[in-house]
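haha ok so turns out i had the wrong file open the whole time. this is the CORRECT one, sorry everyone. sequence first:
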Amino acid sequence: MRVGGIIDISTKDIPNKSSMVIFTVGCNLKCGFCHNKFLLNKEVGRNWEIDELLEQIRSNMLVSGVSISGGEPTLQKDLIDLCKEIKNLGKYISVDTNGTNPDTIGRILFYIDRVALDLKGPLKKSKLRKITETDVNPDSIIETINIVNDQKRIDFEIRTTYVEKIMEQKDIHKIISFLRKMDFKGNFVLQQYQYSEGVGEENKDKFQKPEHITLLNILKPYKELILPFNIYLRDEILGYSSIDKLFNVSLDDII
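then structure:
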């Protein structure tokens, strides 16, 4: 497996768990705002044998989970083998994906505990093209969502990063409406885009971070709406917060 980096201990990648994070190399999308853009370079990192990764995980007694991120992990041919072996260690396994490879996700579901799907935007070809700078087949992502949503034991998170200048508030409303119609049962997370060095200096002014109040306004229509899924906000002001708590915090409390 081609690995571009490993974080020994993280408390952010899997909610309520300490985890090791493995970043795989390569992605089939080219999102300009991606903060892990260096992983698009196939020369980054090195090839790891499954046994090497297992020894790294086994020796880390401080983590209860393993998050396999990227890049796009489903591009790794030995992903299923790694998941099988990590399951044998008794670790909680989370896999990040953009949802474009439903067959691979379907094959690994038996061995993992959580899927975190980065839904880049409304499932319309032209919009996904603008956001990902790639021709994406929305049907593949819909198939992935359906496959995972049917597995009740899987913790399922769908998250969308709101990037001003390339996204509009109505895009998030379209996503929530879509998830509602398909009876999504997991957690939907609206994420605040924040510039980091990984995005690249050349893109610093191309994308804009939305303000906290902008994100609140997007979610406000759903604060008392009964949905089959939970809604969360992740931003620099409140961190990771459920919608029922968002509107109980005043700006005075934050400032």
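The longest helix spans residues 169-181.
again sry for the mixup
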